[in-house]
């Protein structure tokens, strides 16, 4: 017997989370099905709307000004500028950890690779590091945390022409963590301000010991950037302690996976889903659907048994090629759950460009939709009346080149969830 809801959302990332949240806040009995809780641990924690226009020259100063000129098939054209603004307002309600809501203009944030990234929302923990700030900066890396080479990043930032002097230093993290220590281990030591042994053999609290190790490298720097490991339970308290010890503002530099800022955002999003009354089923993949002429239920595979979940409306938010929401072999590109049409050339050699950094067609593979975000078949007709799609399962845009992945996920997720709830009335 099927477990029943009014709206079922398939996928637990930003798109699925905001779809479920929008549907629940519109009064729908909503269930979220996710094989894995989310992919936010793999994200930097920066939330982009649009960093680069597809045909633009350089970073986009105001992403909202660019949206009306995007190609018709771009998901932003479907939801419109108003829809993107509404979705970002919903994002701002979910978490108080972020800055950027005060302006339409992108902020410029340094990354762990020494690049400067335009982004619409950024964690408060990174705010003192914005590249438009002219205060000189010191970047600090840890010997055992090889993902962040602070001197290398500092050199790249200077070569990028930032309006401040930047230096890099690599130190031993107090406590002698091993090279395979998880970022959460660094964060826990700083959260708990646990006693650690310093290089001299003395025992000091972790925050004080870290500040003492950094102090000799300050050399007039007016702010200090660390890899994004400065606490998980209370990162604001960790930064405040370090700022008091060092006498200058402290900021985090966004990192690659696993990402603490991404995990913090995941915590806030799932807390909001819980508060909105969304039922959640995680840990088992959705493997198919049942229905005649429409979708009546989807089924998960739980230890070899198929468990059906019935609903009136469904939202597909399973991700793109990387997240396996879109699959491919040597012959075709497919959407594996509902077998929705994915436009692509019959000749697979047209899927990519011979230039490694060229215009690859596969980067835009995904579902095309109508104005209600319902996936379209090859004839341009809605595949199912009661199915909508959101996030990187959608086609018609290159989120990696545009730096638009988070924004598209939030905007289309919010719109799809609200439309699913509206269809119940």
Automatic annotation (TrEMBL):
InterPro entries: FAD-dep_OxRdtase_2_FAD-bd (IPR003953), FAD-oxidoreductase_2 (IPR050315), FAD/NAD-bd_sf (IPR036188), G3P_DH_GlpB_su (IPR009158). The keyword Oxidoreductase applies. SUPFAM superfamilies: FAD/NAD(P)-binding domain. One of its GO terms (cellular component) is glycerol-3-phosphate dehydrogenase (FAD) complex. GO terms for molecular function: glycerol-3-phosphate dehydrogenase (quinone) activity. Transmembrane segments: none annotated. Signal peptide: none annotated. The keyword Oxidoreductase applies. Residues 7-408 form the FAD-dependent oxidoreductase 2 FAD-binding domain. Its EC number is 1.1.5.3. Keywords: Flavoprotein, FMN, Oxidoreductase. PANTHER family: ANAEROBIC GLYCEROL-3-PHOSPHATE DEHYDROGENASE SUBUNIT B, FUMARATE REDUCTASE. This is Anaerobic glycerol-3-phosphate dehydrogenase subunit B. It comes from Halosimplex carlsbadense 2-9-1.
């Amino acid at each position: 017997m099927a477990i029943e809801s009014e709206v079922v959302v398939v996928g637990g990332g930003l798109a699925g989370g905001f779809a479920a949240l929008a549907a629940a806040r519109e009064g729908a009995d909503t269930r979220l099905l996710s094989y894995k809780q989310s992919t936010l641990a793999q994200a930097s924690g920066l939330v982009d709307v649009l960093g680069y226009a597809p045909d633009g020259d350089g970073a986009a100063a105001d992403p909202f000004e660019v949206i009306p000129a995007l190609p018709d098939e771009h998901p932003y054209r479907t939801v419109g500028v108003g829809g993107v603004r509404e979705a970002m307002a919903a994002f701002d309600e979910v978490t108080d950890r972020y800055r950027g809501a005060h302006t339409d203009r992108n902020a410029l944030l340094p990354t762990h690779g020494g690049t400067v990234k335009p982004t619409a929302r950024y964690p408060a923990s990174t705010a003192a590091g914005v590249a438009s700030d002219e205060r000189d900066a010191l970047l600090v890396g840890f010997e055992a945390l090889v993902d962040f080479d602070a001197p290398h990043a500092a050199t790249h930032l200077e070569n990028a022409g930032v309006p401040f002097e930047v230096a890099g230093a690599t130190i031993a993290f107090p406590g002698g963590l091993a090279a395979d220590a998880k970022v959460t281990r660094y964060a826990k030591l700083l959260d708990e301000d646990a006693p650690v042994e310093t290089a001299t053999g003395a025992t000091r609290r972790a925050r004080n010991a870290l500040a003492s190790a950094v102090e000799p490298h300050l050399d007039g720097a007016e702010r200090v950037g660390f890899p994004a490991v400065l606490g998980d339970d209370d990162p604001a308290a960790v930064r405040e302690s370090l700022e008091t010890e060092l006498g200058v503002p402290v900021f985090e530099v966004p990192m690659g996976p696993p990402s603490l800022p991404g995990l913090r955002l995941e915590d806030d999003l799932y807390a909001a889903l819980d508060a909105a009354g969304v039922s959640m089923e995680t840990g088992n993949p959705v493997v198919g659907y049942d229905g005649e002429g429409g979708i009546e239920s989807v089924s998960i595979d739980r230890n070899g048994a198929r468990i059906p979940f019935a609903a009136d409306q469904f939202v597909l938010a399973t991700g793109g090629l990387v997240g396996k929401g879109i699959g491919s072999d040597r012959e075709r590109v497919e959407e594996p759950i509902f077998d929705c049409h994915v436009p692509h050339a019959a000749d697979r050699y047209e899927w990519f460009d011979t230039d490694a950094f060229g215009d690859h067609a596969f980067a835009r593979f995904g579902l095309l939709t109508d104005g209600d975000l319902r996936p379209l078949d090859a004839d341009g007709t809605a595949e199912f009346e009661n199915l909508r799609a959101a996030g990187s399962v959608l086609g018609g845009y290159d989120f990696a080149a545009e730096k638009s992945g988070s924004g598209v996920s939030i905007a289309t997720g919010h719109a799809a969830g609200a439309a699913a709830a509206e269809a119940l009335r």
